[in-house]
Amino acid sequence: MEKLYFITGNKGKFKEAKIMLRPLNIKLIQTDIGYPEIQASDLKEIVLFSINFCNERLKSPFFLEDSGLFIDELNSFPGPYSRYIQDTIGNDGILKLLLNVNNRSAYFKSIVGLYKNGPHIFEGISRGIISNEILGHGGFGYDPIFIPEKSPKSFGEMTTIEKNKFSHRGRALEKLVTYLESGVE
Amino acid sequence: MEKLYFITGNKGKFKEAKIMLRPLNIKLIQTDIGYPEIQASDLKEIVLFSINFCNERLKSPFFLEDSGLFIDELNSFPGPYSRYIQDTIGNDGILKLLLNVNNRSAYFKSIVGLYKNGPHIFEGISRGIISNEILGHGGFGYDPIFIPEKSPKSFGEMTTIEKNKFSHRGRALEKLVTYLESGVE
């Protein structure tokens, strides 16, 4: 069986990917080798730099993923630095920044970068709104404050399988699966 | 006269450096070649990566600088991503996050990375507090909301010469000047 590495230290992301890649005849392996991410406002630029870096070290096909939450009223904050900002001010900080703000539109973006006979980029977007309070304890990061379009629930209130249907990462991983099945990007 | 490049697109920083380096018999030149900065919570790691990158492109001695504001109550936010966060939520966002927060302690850190016969790192720190409102229009970035210790004024209310006496970057540049004069780090 063909092996494919997912370079991530995030168990939640690996769990999501494992479910999405089930239809493929591939052995998905989690590996947590560190790699540099550059500072850039464009996630694609960050992922391309990282996969080219990893390709010089890892000689098997692999992918990695970067994602961010982009809030309209906050000029795309927290954007590419979503993880650091989650670790410092957290969801309470986001809710405080949006106190008395009417426009709560936001989107999550996921970029999956695959290296297999060259670099390949797959993008997934999930639009929605920031809730007024913490909703649910599922998922990770900003999940409990993000309600995707056409859903009554936040990501934090969904199971992993439900979330994959709506989520940015689910959509990017779906494109990865299609590509690995058919070779069409 | 010996030439030294300061790689920056920030006119405010160049102005500060030009004043600090006056005692030296050196021609300071601003150059705005782009370079990658990695994502890391440690500014030294960011600067070391960048100066090694630039050294492969620029064959003359140069330095660059990275700085950040670290707010105690916000777990070091905005930290290494101070510029992006300034460009998105700005000083109003910081004040909103600190609304009704008593502990307003913060520090600015500056790392100057010189490449001259190898890499050299100089650190400067300025401790102080975040003000309750915008104070002054001088400087740039977070200057109007930061009041350094032993000063009645914010950085935004100071002239460049005054600010250099108190500032993190002034202190890091002072170490750079001492090194360039004496060769002692």
Automatic annotation (TrEMBL), chains A, B:
Chain positions recorded as substrate binding sites: 8-13, 67, 140-143, 163, 168-169
Cofactor(s) in the UniProt record: Mg(2+)
A Pfam cross-reference name: Ham1p_like
InterPro entries xrefs: dITP/XTP_pyrophosphatase, ITPase-like_fam, RdgB/HAM1
Active site: 66
Residues noted as binding Mg(2+) in the record, renumbered to the chain: 37, 66
Note describing how the cofactor binds: Binds 1 Mg(2+) ion per subunit.
Catalytic reactions of this protein: XTP + H2O = XMP + diphosphate + H(+); dITP + H2O = dIMP + diphosphate + H(+); ITP + H2O = IMP + diphosphate + H(+)
UniProt record, GO biological process: nucleotide metabolic process; purine nucleoside triphosphate catabolic process
GO CC term, one of those recorded: cytoplasm
Alphabetical UniProt keywords: Hydrolase, Magnesium, Metal-binding, Nucleotide metabolism, Nucleotide-binding
Key word Protein transport present: no
Entry EC no(s): 3.6.1.66
Annotated GO MF terms: dITP diphosphatase activity; ITP diphosphatase activity; metal ion binding; nucleotide binding; ribonucleoside triphosphate phosphatase activity; XTP diphosphatase activity
Family designation: Belongs to the HAM1 NTPase family.
HAMAP family per the UniProt record, alphabetical: Non_canon_purine_NTPase
Assembly: Homodimer.
Function: Pyrophosphatase that catalyzes the hydrolysis of nucleoside triphosphates to their monophosphate derivatives, with a high preference for the non-canonical purine nucleotides XTP (xanthosine triphosphate), dITP (deoxyinosine triphosphate) and ITP. Seems to function as a house-cleaning enzyme that removes non-canonical purine nucleotides from the nucleotide pool, thus preventing their incorporation into DNA/RNA and avoiding chromosomal lesions.
Annotated protein name in UniProt: dITP/XTP pyrophosphatase
Origin species: Candidatus Methanofastidiosum methylothiophilum
